[in-house]
Amino acid sequence: MRLMQFIIFFGIVLTVYTLLNYYIFSRGLRTFEPGSALRTFYIVGFWALAATFILGRVLEKIYLSHLSDFFTWTGSFWLAAMLYLFLAVVAIDIVRLINHFVSFFHHFEGIIWMQKPYLITVFVSVVVFLSVLVGHLNALNPRIKEININTGTKSMHGKSLRLVMASDVHLGTIISKKRLTKYVKLINELKPEAVLFAGDILDEDLAPVIKQNLGDLLNTIDAPLGVYGTTGNHEYIGGASRAIEYLSGHGIKMMGDTMTQLVDNVYLAGREDIESVRFAGKTRKKLDSFTGSRPHDSYLIVLDHQPRAIPEAVDAGVGLLLSGHTHHGQMWPLNYITQAAFPVSWGLKKFEKTNVYVSSGLGSWGPPVRIGNKPEIVVITLMFDE
User: Fold this and answer.
1) β-bridge pairing 299-303 and 266-270
2) Half-sphere exposure of 305 toward its Cβ, with a 13 Å CA cutoff?
3) Measured at the alpha carbon of residue 99, what is the angle toward residues 93 and 103, in degrees to the nearest 5?
4) By C-alpha distance, which of 293, 290, 299 is closest to 320?
5) 192 and 144 in contact (C-beta within 8 Å)?
6) Around Cβ 372, how many Cβ atoms within 10 Å?
7) 3-state DSSP call for residue 52?
8) Residue 3 — pLDDT band, cuts 50, 70, 90?
9) The model's pTM
């Protein structure tokens, strides 16, 4: 049954991917003269790039190698380029449609791009290439986001508790050893008492993580109270049981519908991802079923990868809900979609007595590109009453 679901899902993705590429391709093709060398170069180059994403994903499943890495990296950048090429082509088609009803192109017949339409394709391609390059450089440099939360409760631990939170690291072929080394160094420099990973620590396939031995780097995270994590949808897509086993064996205490005491009067709970039922046939527990046993005046932090169950968190008396998943769209203008789809796409928002923080994520899915937002590591200072 699940194999059939995967085949159907892959078939739909492949069909949509092909149609989008064909739409972009066909609009660019009409700008080149039939029989010209530039037209031939465009045809071959376009479909060679379009094929890299599929080839990379397939080769990763068969055999990891420098060749599979090359196709995965190239295909990932192509996904970003596709988005902006698509938007550019749609914009041009809208202008052409307006010209169909209110003719105005004839006023520009003397301009060179009207005489040589392929220059439009070249110009758009250059702008997209530069945008993706800038977005990649942006994705390589996470910011440190600091927030202070007044708990309204007392703790024998002291005046405050310093936590570092990250979500959506997506360890794998793209977010590899070099990037993770940088992330771990940044986290350790922040001197956290505890580190919290809010899901999608891995990017589906565990094989690239094992091959690069990224677990040893995770083991070097220094936090006296421990390193904790919860599953995201990508752990479930790639196989949650193996992902949990690997992460648990490399210094991360995976919280799957469980609760633990961090310090006096402060508890931490982690939820299975809401997609567990779809990918593993596993329905996650109700939040209050495993958090209701804590003292009434205690403070509860919950890791829940997707910011969908906020009303349930409010009803359970959660003090701080930490999520990720949205990437805040990752590439403009997709942030408008995440803002419409989730109660919080990014940032801190209060629902009654529950503070909700949704991170834009540390890594990236698909394209190693961020445009319109930045990756982040979040420093959370919980302040207690005297």
Assistant:
1) parallel
2) 29
3) 165
4) 299
5) no
6) 15
7) helix
8) low
9) 0.92
Exposure letters 102-120 (e unless 16+ CB within 10 A, then b): eeeeeeeeeeeeeeeebeb
Backbone angles phi, psi at 335, to 5 degrees: -65, -25
Residue 314 burial (CB < 10 Å; 0-12/13-18/19+)?
middle
| Bridge partners for 377 per DSSP | 144
Q: pLDDT band at residue 205, thresholds of 50, 70 and 90? A: confident
Whether the link from the prior residue into 333 is cis, omega within 30° of 0, is yes
- Percent of the chain topping pLDDT 70: 96
Residue carrying structure tokens 């609760």: 259
| Per-residue pLDDT reduced to its tens digit, 73-125 | 999 999 999 999 999 999 999 998 998 888 887 666 666 666 788 899 999 99
Which residue is associated with the tokens 């942006």? 138
Q: Please, are residues 80 and 52 in contact by the beta-carbon 8 Å criterion?
A: no
* DSSP secondary structure of 360-375: --SS-SSSS--BSS--
- 348 — phi, psi (to 5°)? -105, 130
| Cα torsion 166, 167, 172, 174: sign | negative
**How many Cα atoms occupy the beta-carbon half-sphere of 373 within 13 Å?**
25
Q: Say which residues have a Cβ less than 8 Å from residue 94's Cβ, sequence separation at least 6.
A: none
Contacting residues for 242 by C-beta, under 8 A, at least 6 apart = 206
Strand order in the sheet with 376-383: 143-150, 376-383, 160-166, 194-198, 227-230, 253-254
Q: What is the rounded CA–CA span in Å between residue 356 and residue 314?
A: 10
| Per-residue confidence (pLDDT) for residue 189, from 0 to 100 | 98
Q: Quick one: how far is CA 304 from the chain centroid?
A: 15
Mean pLDDT (the chain, rounded): 93
Taking residues 196-219, report their average pLDDT. 94
